[in-house]
Specification:
The chain has helices at about 15-70, 75-85, 100-105, 115-120, 125-135. By secondary structure, it is mostly helical.
Length: about 160
């Protein structure tokens, strides 16, 4: 099908040079502003993380301040000494109940834990230390160097000239 043309008007291209320059300028602006925009977004997220961390530290400081105030009370100190250190006031009869079968009540996190590792958990530190000393003492001694295959050469006897 033939196109209708108006006489005296030339065919107009789809993109003019002005439109091409405008597209290039816009692409350049996008390319130039992409990195700073990304940095801005990253810094905002980092700032939010820092604010959350500061809030957490502030709460921790408040908790420690409350704990410090609690430890200033002599009654609290006495109660903690009795509970943690098993101290007793004069006239008190202190006693500690001990579970006769601690291995039956303590469940290991892994099902295949050996009984030897459970027994080690209930030993005091000095027992483990002494066992390591015994093991080091019972370690096999290095064998003395083996005798050579050839007998050593006899020393020449000193000759006397008489």
């Amino acid at each position: 099908m033939a196109r209708w043309r108006i006489p005296g008007l030339a065919a107009r291209p789809r993109f003019t040079s002005r439109a091409t320059v405008l597209v290039l300028v816009l692409c350049s602006l996008v390319a130039i502003l992409a990195y700073p925009a990304r940095q801005f977004i990253a810094q905002r997220s980092e700032l939010a993380e820092q604010r959350a961390q500061a809030e957490q530290v502030r709460q921790q400081v408040e908790q420690l301040t409350r704990d410090r105030a609690r430890w200033q009370d002599p009654e609290y100190v006495k109660a903690q000494a009795r509970e943690r250190l098993h101290y007793a006031l004069p006239g008190d009869t202190p006693f500690v109940s001990v579970d006769p079968s601690p291995s039956a009540t303590v469940k290991s996190s892994s099902t295949g834990a050996a009984p030897a590792t459970q027994a080690k958990a209930f030993k005091p530190w000095y027992a483990g230390f002494w066992e390591s000393v015994d093991l080091a003492d019972a370690a096999p001694r290095p064998a003395p160097p083996a005798a050579e295959a050839h007998p050593p050469h006899p020393r020449p006897s000193p000759k006397t000239d008489r």
